[in-house]
Design brief:
Helices cover 23% and strands 27% of the residues. It is α+β, with helices and mostly antiparallel strands. It folds into 3 domains: 90 residues, Sandwich (Immunoglobulin-like), CATH 2.60.40; 307 residues, TIM Barrel (Alpha-Beta Barrel); 85 residues, Immunoglobulin-like. Helix 4 packs parallel to helix 5, helix 7 packs parallel to helix 8 and helix 11 runs parallel beside helix 13.
Amino acid sequence: MPTVEQWRVFETHIESNGDYANPFLDVDVKVHFTAPSGRAVVIDGFWDEGPRWGIRFSPDEVGEWEWRTESSVPDDADLHNRTGSFQCVPYEGDNPLYRHGPVRLSANRLHFEHADGTKFFWLADTAWNGVLRSTKEDWSRYLKTRREQRFTAIQFVSTQWRGLKGGPHDGVAFVQGERLELNPHFFEHLDPRVKAINGHGLVAAPVILWAFREGDPGVSLSEEDAIRVARYIVARWGAYQVVWILGGDGHYEGERSERWKRIGRAVFGERRDRLVTMHPCGQSWVADEFNGEEWFDFIGYQSGHGSSEKNLRWLTEGPPAANWRRDPSRPVINLEPNYEAISSYQEHVPFTDREVRRAAYWSLLVSPTAGVTYGHNSIWVWNEKAGPADGHERLGDVPPWQEGLMPPGAQSMAVLHRFFANLPWWTLRPAPELLAEQPGENDPRRFVAAAMAEEETLALLYLPCGGEVRLKLDVCDTMERARWFNPRAEEWTEAGSIAGEYTAPDDMDWMLVIDKGDGL
C-alpha cells in the first residue's frame, strides 16, 4: 500500500480503454475519497494525454484512505469504478506548509492561518511569467532567494496570455476552435515548477484565467470553456498548497461580475479546501460585487503603478482604508502595488525601493494587517536578456530577470517581514484616530498610516517622508515607550518619552513604534 505524508500529495494514474476524439471535453472523471474517519471527499481527475488520466489528492487525516473513480462514460471500465487505497502518515520534515497544513481564514476572518492555527503572513512576489518561461535551474535559484528573503507566496499566470511569447514549453495551454482543445504538454512543463514552489516552503498562487485584454483566456473563452479550463487547473494543482486567484487583472464590475460569479460557483462550489480571490485591474474595488459569494474568501486589489495624487489617495483614503469593515469580514491584500523599477504611469520615472516600501507599509496599516505583495519589473517579465516585455510595449527594454533577485526593494521586504514577525501583527487595526492632524491632508506623499493592537498595547505609525507627527495623548495613555524603526537598515532609535509630538531622524521613511516596553 502506498504511503503519503499528511498534507502532501497522493498521486496515481489510470488509463482508459475508450477512444475519444476530445477526452478533455468528452469525459469527466470524479474520484471519491473516504477518510479514516469515514468522511467523504470528491475531487476531479484530469486528462493527462492519450489514454492516461491523473489523480492528485492531499490527505488531511492520518490513517488509511480509500478511493473510487466515477466516469461519465460508465462503459469504460478502466476509468469507471477503479479503486485503491493508501496510508497517510504524519509529516516529519521542516517545510512549514506540511508541518502546519493549508492556509485558511482565521476565526475572525481578518487574516490567514494554517490548518493547525499557526499564523500565516502573506508576503508574495508577482512572478507572472516565471512558471511559464523559466528553466528548471533558474526557477530553483529564484525560489531559494525569495524564501531566504522571507517571502511566503508566489503569484503567477497559469495559461497563455500576452506575456507568454518565448517560453520553453510545448505550445499553448489550449487552442480555441470549433471545440476547445487542451494541450496537456503545456501543463507537464508547468507541473514541476508549481511543485517546486511548495518544495521551497512557499504557497503557490496561480491566476487561473488572466482577463485584461481580448486575447486573454478570461475574456476570449466562452463561459462554458472558462469553467472547463479552470476546473482542469484546479484538478491538476488543487492537491498542492495553493491559494487560487480565479481572474487576473480584469474588470469585474456590474454585469461582468455576474459571469465571474457563475464561473466561481461552477469551479469552487463543490471544493472548498483552498482559499480563492480575484485580482482586479488597477484601482478597482470588487469586494462589494462578490460579497455574497461563498467561494470568495478574501479581498484582493491592485493599487497599481500610478504616482498621481489621485492614485495615492485611492490607496490611503479610498476603498482599502474605508471599506474593510463591511460584513462579512475578509482579509484585505494589495496583490499588486507599485513595482520596483517599473516606470510610473504619470511621471514615467522608475519606482525605487522607497516607493515600494511606502505602498507596502500603507497597504498593511490602512486595512487590518494580513499581508502584502511585492513586485519587480524584471521578475514578472522574466526576460533571459534585456529586451521588450511582450505585450507591454510602453515599458521599453526590461533587464533580465536576474536583476530582480536582490534589489533594495526585495531586501526591504525581508526587513518588513522580520519587523512584523516580532509583534502581534494579526491584532493590528487601522487607527487614524491616533493622529491629532494628518500630514497627508495637503500632500498625499506625506500620509501617515496608523494602526493599533486590539488591546491597545502597541501602536504603529508609518511616516513615508519623515518630518513631524502629532498624536492625541488620550489614545496612548497606556504606552510607556516610543522608538523609531528604520525600514531600510533595520535599526532602532529611541524617540523619547510619550509627549504627543515626535520628529523623525531624517526625511526618509520611518516607523514610529509606541508600546508598553515589554516586547519587540
